[in-house]
Structures are given as structure tokens and as C-alpha cells.
Amino acid sequence: MPIAFGQYQYTALRPTGNHRTGTEVNITPPEDASMVLVQPTGGDVRVKLDGSDATSTAGFQVADGNAQYFPVAGRTRISIVTESGTPNLQYQFFS
């Protein structure tokens, strides 16, 4: 079943690179990535995609145990920080 995201519909996502884990990160996606899936376990995180640093009060919130897709481009700098708890961050890029 297609997933609508803005004006785009995604029917099949192909993983780009490896599934990764970590804590707070600043990452740049691979050139061929179009989306990133983020899931924290053990606490909430904040995600910013504009090149500035996320803080515990600024950025898109992803709650503990929930997964969220974000659109990205090859030069997007992604900042992910802890909002609460001690999350283990899971993330994967897709093209």
C-alpha cells in the first residue's frame, strides 16, 4: 500500500547503507538517500533537519518506542538529541 508524504507516494523503500544505532548524533545522509527512519527506545528525542543543532526543546519530537520517517537529501545535516530518558537511537536511510 502506498504511503503518502506531501506530494510524493512511496510504494517501496530500498535501504541505503546499514541499520545504525547510537545516542545523540549529527549525521549527513548518503547521497542517494531520500528518507531516514528514526526510532528511539528508552526515551524521547528531538530531530532537526535544517543544519542547526537540535535541543531538548527544539526540533521534531519522536517519542520513545515510536518510529518516524523524515525526508532528506544528500547534503541535509541531521541533528538528533535526547529530550528525556536515555534513548538508544535506531536509524536507517532509504532511497
Q: What is the element layout, followed by pairings?
A:
Elements: E1 3-5, E2 8-10, E3 15-22, E4 25-27, E5 35-41, E6 45-48, E7 60-62, E8 68-71, E9 78-82, E10 88-94
Antiparallel strand pairs: 1-2, 3-10, 4-9, 5-8, 5-10, 6-7, 6-9
Structural summary, described in words:
This protein has 95 residues and is mostly beta strands. The chain has no helices and ten strands. The protein has a four-stranded antiparallel sheet with strand order 3-10-5-8, with no helix packed on it. It has a four-stranded antiparallel sheet with strand order 4-9-6-7, with no helix packed on it. A hairpin with a 2-residue loop joins β1 (3-5) and β2 (8-10). It is globular and about 30 Å long. The protein starts with a strand and ends with a strand. The model has no long low-confidence stretch (mean pLDDT 87).
What is the terminal-to-terminal distance? 17 Å
Rg for CA atoms: 13 Å
* Strand order of the biggest β-sheet: 3-10-5-8
Structural class assignment: mainly beta
Largest sheet: 4 strands, antiparallel
Rounded average pLDDT: 87
The total beta strand count reads: 10
What shape does the CA trace take? globular
- Output the helix-strand order: EEEEEEEEEE
Figure out the total of helices. 0
Q: How is this structure best summarized?
A:
The protein is mainly β and 95 residues long. The protein is 0% helix and 49% strand.
Task: Tag the structure with descriptive keywords.
95 residues; mainly beta; 4-stranded antiparallel beta sheet; globular
